Inverse folding.
């Protein structure tokens, strides 16, 4: 092929070697004769002008033979001329010979030329060829550059440049130029241009070039490379039929080159000559180079297109991933997929998901490029055979890659013919190609995914890959969405659970925080309202002893008929049933039911459905929690399950509260007992004095406190008084209080003065593991003299009411238990008859939360009690101070009145020998108060002493009893009566009668009254008369 | 209540009050003296502030015992109330009473020689 082409190409025009030789010869001989003639004629001339005659042949030779023969002949000519110049006229044989020498030279040259003629000719030819080549190169370069320019200037994936390139080539070469490419397996003529752009290419030529059965074209497209063919020089075997093809299309030659690519050639570029051309290998190379250029450009386009497509696919996949990764439900997810696919891959897209229950693939989501068509597509696709057992579906679901389906597929043709729905899909929908992909998650087929196009085209590999990727992501997304839905369901459940838990924990907190059942029920009702709506909620408690239901709580609208609380025997009630069975009960509609008592009552109140949940503690029903709702069928078993924990909690709380109540009652009883045990039952009965004491706990329930008062008559008839307050409440405080009180008594009995009592008590307390903090006032009072020695440790100093004026005793040291050792100061005050002393704990002045204010208030109140007896004064103080608000703290107060002179002496003592002295002392004091002489007083005492002696000695005979003494001055008569409440035993010993003698002898009047209830001895003295008599 | 013996005579000083509560002590003290062979007893009541019939009973019984032992029991007091008590009860005539201890001791010397009554 190449050799033949080169032969064709080396053919030259108009270079006949024979003619060349004649020309050369003539050119050499003619100068000879011309020179000879000139030499002859020369004799008559001065200057040999013939020299000029050499010039034409010289030029001729130069023109014909190049510069080397020309130089030679010029040299010879110069020698000839030189000769003539030396010897101008002499015509000698030597001269002749010399003159002939140039001719000879010419002759020799001619011969030389004749001999080397071919080479010379070739030389000449090459000379010309070089010139031509240079010109052509220039032209070709210009063409290539122009084509390159065109290719460079074209737009991205823009095909019109092919036409421009062909046109340029055609114009440049003066031939036809065509470009054929293979796209999706088909040949397509991209451009066909002639030298005259206006001239349309012949239609048959265009069709023929793109025809798939073009032999030489097929060879190029299969094998690549280039071909050159001519009508005459073509291959004789004609296997390509190129020559015949050229002849058929009235062409003389063609140069064609495949567009080379990594795989199969992309197409070919062909230059077609209508007339004979002097083409050579270089021309073919040019075509090849142009083809390569184009191929490169197209490959770059393809790659660029591929890259762009990949970027777009990646963007699509990424967008899908992003959209699918967003928390969405399944429907939204699938809608996203089909919408995106429709945008990028096809005219429509549909997803069917496997329904394992029915083994079908119902269409779940579908989208069409034209939204108006969506409904139609959905309607048609929905009618497609969707069984999982459909062979087509089995094939797709079983595979992993998308299956392309084309309308011209024979299997589809069969399907279309046999199935009217398929016919509709491919006919009415105009679908031509479908990509049918399985959607899987790992190994589980989830459904199918179909993309359809309505244009006649095949699916490209990248589209199939993209579809596969989309299918894979869709699988993930479906799984994701299902997980999400499951998670949402779980979360919703968790939220319900959490609401339940929080409701439960709330009521647990309530239950723990309060023991007020009323508040508990309210809180439960509120918590329940959040958990389970109700119109009416009630709590019924069951009394197993009476088989009775109570309803301690109800909330909601009033019932039509009273009573609002459904209480009564459990028989015949739904609550009774629930209590008996321990199971919840749901009434769907009260209008349809008459089984239980409540059905009628609640139904009449418009409560259509109800739910009764047992409240059990340790498996034992203690009652029911009841919900009612105006809507029929409102409650379900799920609700029962939901509120069961609350009901259990409520049951526990109720039980708790009941226990607490019981415990509190017990504690209250205990406190009372302790209080009684700790506070003195009876205050000592002091002559000429009145004592009153009050204790008022802050907790009205009787919780024991740490406050106390105490009064103890010491052996020497002095009175120990103490009022104190142990910090804190409850049994520890009460216990410390008891200890402190007893220690004070013990120290007082040891004759310690108050200050030493406190110092000693402080030391004792300090040695306790946890020293209690005690504020206390201690006083020791001699009622006969009114002398009060006292000391204060942190307690409010007592108030003294004298002559209507209230003063405060001196304050003292810190509370006990605040330092290991403290020497308390002791004060002394003398009370006069009629004075009132008030010792109290700070609870009495803390009522108003302002101590100063409280104290002022107390002073006023105390001032107002002047004239009242001690107990009435104490009550008045409490009433006055506490009457305004509840006390924050315990209150203990002690009132000591030193009675006025004219106040009667009245007291009682235990019937014991030791009491006699006290009686005598009191009576002596009474006598002295009324102004009798010491001696007279002694006598009065002697008389009363005998009376008391009788009472003690004879009335009770060793059994305990009391002796009451009353002494009073009425007018001038002082009367003392001694009374016992026993059986008088007649004196048996000798000398017993002396007592009576003494009584009679030392008195003005002496009377004895005996009765079964006791004996009263009344002795009187006339004061004035007697004192007058004695003085 | 501490007894002392002055010139063979036992003297018992009684201070404070003598009543049902304290008389048993007096009784014990006197019985101890009597048990110790003392038949001459002087009870000094100068510091006694009160005395009731119980004490009188004890003293009367003690006097009886001393006299049975050949001795006597004298009372020393100066208080008008005791004097009046003794008078009212008719015991002033029974007892040998003195206004001072010295007088009592003087008188007691004569009790010494007197033989016990049988």
């Amino acid at each position: 092929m190449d050799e033949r082409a080169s032969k064709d190409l080396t053919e030259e025009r108009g270079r006949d070697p024979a003619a060349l030789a004649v020309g050369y010869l003539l050119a050499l001989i003619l100068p000879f004769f011309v020179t000879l003639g000139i030499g002859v004629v020369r004799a008559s001339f001065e200057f040999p002008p013939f020299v000029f005659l050499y010039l034409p042949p010289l030029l001729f030779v130069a023109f014909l033979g190049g510069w080397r023969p020309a130089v030679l002949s010029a040299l010879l000519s110069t020698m000839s001329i030189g000769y003539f110049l030396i010897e101008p006229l002499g015509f000698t044989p030597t001269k002749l010979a010399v003159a002939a020498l140039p001719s000879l030279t010419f002759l020799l040259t001619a011969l030389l030329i004749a001999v080397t003629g071919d080479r010379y000719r070739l030389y000449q030819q090459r000379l010309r060829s070089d010139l031509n080549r240079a010109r052509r190169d220039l032209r070709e370069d210009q063409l290539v550059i122009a084509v390159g320019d065109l290719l460079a200037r074209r737009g991205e994936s823009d095909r019109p440049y092919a036409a421009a390139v062909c046109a340029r080539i055609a114009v440049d070469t003066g031939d036809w130029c065509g470009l054929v490419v293979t796209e999706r397996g088909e040949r397509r003529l991209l451009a066909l241009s002639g030298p005259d752009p206006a001239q349309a290419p012949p239609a048959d030529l265009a069709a023929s070039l793109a025809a798939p059965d073009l032999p030489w074209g097929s060879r190029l497209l299969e094998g690549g490379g280039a071909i050159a063919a001519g009508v005459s020089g073509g291959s004789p075997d004609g296997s390509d039929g190129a020559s015949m093809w050229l002849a058929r299309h009235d062409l003389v030659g063609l140069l064609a080159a495949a567009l080379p690519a990594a795989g199969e050639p992309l197409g070919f570029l062909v230059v077609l000559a209508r007339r004979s051309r002097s083409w050579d290998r270089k021309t073919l190379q040019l075509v090849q180079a142009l083809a390569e250029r184009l191929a490169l450009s197209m490959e770059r386009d393809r790659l660029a297109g591929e890259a762009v497509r990949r970027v777009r696919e990646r963007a699509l996949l990424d967008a899908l991933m992003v959209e699918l990764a967003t928390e969405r439900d399944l429907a939204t997810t699938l809608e996203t997929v089909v919408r995106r696919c429709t945008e990028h891959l096809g005219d429509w897209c549909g997803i069917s998901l496997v329904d394992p229950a029915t083994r079908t693939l119902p269409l779940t989501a579908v989208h069409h490029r034209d939204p108006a068509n969506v409904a139609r597509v959905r309607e048609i696709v929905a009618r497609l055979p969707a069984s999982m057992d459909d062979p087509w579906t089995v094939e797709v679901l079983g595979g992993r890659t998308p299956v392309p389906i084309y309308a011209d597929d024979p299997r589809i043709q069969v399907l279309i013919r046999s199935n009217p729905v398929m016919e509709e899909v491919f006919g009415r929908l105009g679908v031509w190609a479908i990509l049918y992909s399985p959607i899987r998650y790992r190994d589980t087929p989830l459904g199918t995914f179909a993309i359809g196009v309505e244009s006649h085209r095949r699916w490209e590999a990248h589209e199939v890959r993209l579809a596969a990727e989309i299918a894979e992501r869709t699988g993930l997304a479906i799984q994701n969405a299902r997980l999400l839905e499951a998670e949402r369901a779980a979360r919703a459940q968790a939220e319900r659970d959490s609401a339940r838990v929080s409701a439960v924990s709330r009521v647990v907190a309530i239950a723990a925080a309060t023991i007020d059942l009323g508040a508990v029920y309210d809180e439960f009702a509120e918590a329940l309202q959040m958990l389970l709506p109700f119109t009416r909620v009630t709590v019924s408690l069951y009394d197993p002893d009476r088989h009775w239901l109570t309803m301690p709580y109800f909330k909601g609208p009033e019932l039509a008929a009273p009573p609002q609380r459904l209480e009564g025997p459990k028989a015949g009630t739904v609550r009774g049933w629930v209590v008996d069975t321990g199971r919840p009960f749901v009434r769907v509609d009260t209008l349809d039911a008459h089984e239980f008592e409540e059905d009628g009552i609640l139904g009449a109140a418009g409560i259509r459905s109800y739910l009764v949940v047992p409240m059990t503690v340790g498996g034992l029903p203690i009652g029911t929690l009841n919900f009612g709702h105006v809507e029929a069928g409102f409650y379900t078993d799920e609700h029962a399950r939901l509120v069961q924990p609350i009901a259990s909690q409520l049951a526990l709380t109720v039980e708790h509260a009941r226990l607490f109540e019981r415990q509190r009652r017990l504690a209250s009883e205990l406190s009372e007992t302790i209080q009684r045990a700790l506070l003195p039952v009876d205050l000592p009965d002091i002559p000429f004095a009145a004592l009153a004491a009050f204790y008022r706990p802050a907790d009205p329930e009787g919780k024991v406190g740490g406050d106390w008062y105490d009064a103890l008559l010491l052996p020497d008839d002095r009175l120990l008084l103490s009022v104190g307050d142990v910090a804190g409440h409850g049994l520890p405080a009460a216990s410390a209080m008891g200890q402190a009180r007893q220690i004070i008594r013990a120290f007082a009995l040891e004759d310690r003065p108050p200050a030493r009592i406190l110092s000693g008590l402080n030391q004792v307390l300090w040695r306790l593991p946890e020293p209690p903090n005690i504020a206390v006032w201690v006083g020791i009072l001699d009622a006969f003299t009114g002398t009060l020695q006292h000391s204060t440790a942190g307690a409010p100093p007592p108030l003294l009411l004298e002559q209507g004026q209230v003063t405060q005793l001196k304050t003292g040291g810190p509370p006990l238990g605040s330092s290991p050792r403290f020497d308390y100061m002791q004060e002394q005050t003398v009370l006069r008859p009629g004075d009132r002393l008030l010792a109290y704990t700070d609870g009495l002045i803390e009522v108003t939360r302002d101590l100063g204010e409280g104290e002022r208030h107390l002073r006023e109140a105390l001032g107002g009690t002047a004239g009242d007896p001690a107990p009435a004064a104490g009550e008045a103080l409490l009433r006055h101070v506490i009457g305004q608000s509840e006390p924050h703290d315990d209150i203990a107060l002690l009132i000591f009145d030193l009675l006025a002179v004219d106040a009667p002496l009245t007291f009682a003592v235990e019937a014991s020998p030791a009491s006699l002295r006290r009686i005598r002392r009191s009576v002596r004091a009474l006598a002295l108060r009324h102004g009798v002489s010491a001696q007279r007083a002694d006598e009065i005492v002697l008389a009363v002493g005998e009376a008391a002696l009788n009472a003690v000695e004879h009335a009770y005979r060793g059994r305990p009893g009391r002796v009451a003494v009353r002494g009073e001055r009425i007018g001038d008569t002082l009367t003392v009566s001694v009374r016992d409440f026993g059986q008088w035993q007649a004196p048996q010993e000798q000398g017993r009668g002396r007592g009576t003698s003494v009584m009679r002898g030392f008195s003005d009047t002496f009377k004895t009254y005996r009765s079964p209830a006791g004996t009263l001895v009344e002795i009187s003295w006339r004061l004035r008369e007697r004192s007058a008599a004695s003085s | 209540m501490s007894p002392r013996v002055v010139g063979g005579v036992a003297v018992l000083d009684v201070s404070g009050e003598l009543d049902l509560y304290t008389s048993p002590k007096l009784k014990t003290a006197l019985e101890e003296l009597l048990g110790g062979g003392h038949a001459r007893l002087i009870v000094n009541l100068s510091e006694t502030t009160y005395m009731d019939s119980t004490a009188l009973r004890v003293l009367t019984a003690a006097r009886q015992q001393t006299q049975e032992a050949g001795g006597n029991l004298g009372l020393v007091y100066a208080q008008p109330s005791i004097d009046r008590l003794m008078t009212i009860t008719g015991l002033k005539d029974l007892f040998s009473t003195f206004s001072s201890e010295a007088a009592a001791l003087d008188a007691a010397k004569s009790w010494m020689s007197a033989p016990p009554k049988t």
